[in-house]
Amino acid sequence: MTDYGIIEVLHSPTDNLIQEWAIYCGLNESVEELIDLDVYWRGKTHLLPELSALALVYIWLPVSGVDVERSFSSYKSILSDKRIALKEESIQMLNFLYFNLGGNVNYDLLDSE
Q1: Where does the HAT C-terminal dimerisation domain start and stop, copy by copy (predicted)?
Q2: Which pTM does this prediction carry?
Q3: In the chain, N or C terminus with fewer CB closer than 10 Å?
């Protein structure tokens, strides 16, 4: 995300948020290379309540449009003409398989069975 202007709270941050940002920047922490951001920011809620609340919302946004395009592509595969009559439960299961198998689902093979 290069345009931080789309984050409404950053247009006019509260004094508390500015103070918390200064505290955060002054923290002397060693950060693990592979860190669970959810656990990290939940652990900061007592020290940085506004900043951690903001972080917990925005850490889950895709960093590029590629993820969004990929998901539309997978939905296009799931909702092809051959599968247009699938029940909602079946569509949910195909979606679950796609995202939990790392996108390694060959929908054409599913059609041939």
Answers
A1: 34-101
A2: 0.50
A3: C
